[in-house]
Write a structure and sequence with these properties.
Elements lengths: L1 H8 L10 H5 L43 E4 L16 H7 L6 E4 L3 E2 L3 E3 L3 E11 L7 E3 L3 E11 L5 E5 L2 E11 L3 E5 L2 E5 L2 E3 L6 E3 L3 E5 L2 E3 L10 E5 L4 E5 L2 E3 L2 E2 L4 E6 L10 E3 L2 E2 L9 E3 L70
Parallel strand pairs: 1-2, 2-5, 3-5, 4-6, 5-7, 6-8, 7-9, 8-10, 9-11, 9-12, 10-13, 11-14, 12-15, 13-16, 14-17, 15-18, 16-20, 18-21, 19-22, 20-23
């Protein structure tokens, strides 16, 4: 799907920088026309950078055009070309309606960034280490931003991502080692990502809309968590929080270690919200709270560690053949949807709870 998405990116899709979102998500903006990035350069098929004269081979299997901006950890250039790469901040500043795709070199970028231009950033496995008291990534100015294949860490006094206004679509992120994973009042899409080891909680959705699916939200929080839950969805938020695995998060006594949702709007089907603890203890605490309908999610409290039998509770929350509590639900509707790994659902007699659809 990502190969198709990036191929179509070059010719644009209405307001959306990445047209795959038009195919996979309901959004009125998909029917609009605007100044999405375009290029008159012909598409050249490639299997590696050597096939592309002076540019790079995109994950879509075509060579990048002159509409692409390039950044590297040590980039000092001003033209942001493949041979004169910019810093990541320089590439964002150089973005405009005709040139808004930013390709990062792998490596560690020791900086926080503020995004106030509409851009798509392809991380290529890069790490953004904010190492600061502010947010790692801040989205403002009502722009449209897409992030993929990027680790965001080091915002020990704030959020890995703070989306203040606009639209943020993210896939394949690792949001780890921050104070809070994501704080959002935007139109937020988060797919096939890992939110982990954020000591102040995972997600704080205060306003806007969400489409949060197929994510592992694990090992967040702490025994004195200052939030009402590791995932909070405020009143008035619309959209979907579906087929996510929320496990092994911790909270203070008499709180909600899993998800607190106060909005009647979101679809909450298919989540696996269990094995979350109070003060690191499996004490049967309620895993969810609020006024939302969790009836089509698995939210059983537990007094037994790893009763779901994941692959490895220290690092891998995929399901195993022993995960019978989470497998083959006859009540879930999941035809046509994919899991964290891109595997189609269902694989068995019914679809599985959580981000992983176990492949027999």
């Amino acid at each position: 799907m990502w190969r198709i998405a990036l191929l179509l990116l070059v010719v644009g899709c209405g307001k959306h920088i990445n047209p795959a979102w038009c195919a996979e998500h309901s959004d009125p903006a998909c029917g609009e026309t605007s100044d999405a990035p375009t290029s008159d350069a012909p598409l050249i098929a490639c299997t590696g950078d050597g096939d592309c004269a002076g540019t790079m081979c995109l994950p879509s299997g075509v060579c990048a055009t002159d509409a692409t901006l390039y950044a590297s950890p040590g980039g000092m250039g001003t033209s942001c070309t493949a041979t004169a790469k910019c810093s990541i901040a320089g590439a964002i500043d150089a973005a405009n309606a005709k040139r808004s795709l930013i390709m990062l070199d792998p490596g560690i970028y020791q900086t926080a960034i503020a995004i106030n231009h509409s851009v798509q950033i392809i991380g290529n496995g890069a790490t953004l280490d904010a190492s600061s008291s502010g947010a790692g990534v801040t989205v403002t100015n009502d722009v449209t931003v897409e992030l993929s294949d990027l680790t965001i860490t080091g915002a020990t006094g704030s959020s890995g991502i703070a989306c203040i206004s606009g639209t943020l679509r993210a896939r394949g992120l690792k949001i780890i080692g921050n104070q809070l994973g994501i704080a959002s009042a935007c139109a937020l899409t988060l797919d096939r990502s890992t939110v982990s080891t954020n000591v102040g909680g995972a997600l704080a959705i205060t306003a806007g809309s969400i489409d949060i699916r197929n994510n592992f939200i694990v090992h967040n929080g702490n025994p004195t968590l200052g939030r009402s839950a590791n995932v909070t969805i405020a009143s008035g938020v619309s959209g979907a929080f579906a087929f996510n695995t929320v496990a092994y998060n911790d909270a203070k006594k008499n709180s909600t270690p899993g998800v607190d949702c106060s909005s009647p709007g979101p679809n909450l089907d298919g989540n696996l919200i269990t094995d979350n603890t109070e003060k690191t203890v499996f004490n049967g605490a309620a895993q969810v709270s609020g006024t939302c309908d969790f009836s089509k999610s698995y939210t059983a409290a537990t007094v037994v560690a790893d009763d779901i039998h994941w692959v490895d509770v220290s690092s891998d929350f995929h399901l195993t053949i022993a995960s019978t509590l989470a497998l083959d639900s006859p009540t879930l509707v999941c035809e046509g949807t994919d899991d964290f790994d891109g595997d189609a659902r269902p694989k068995g007699e019914g679809c599985d709870f959580g981000a992983d659809e176990r492949v027999p």
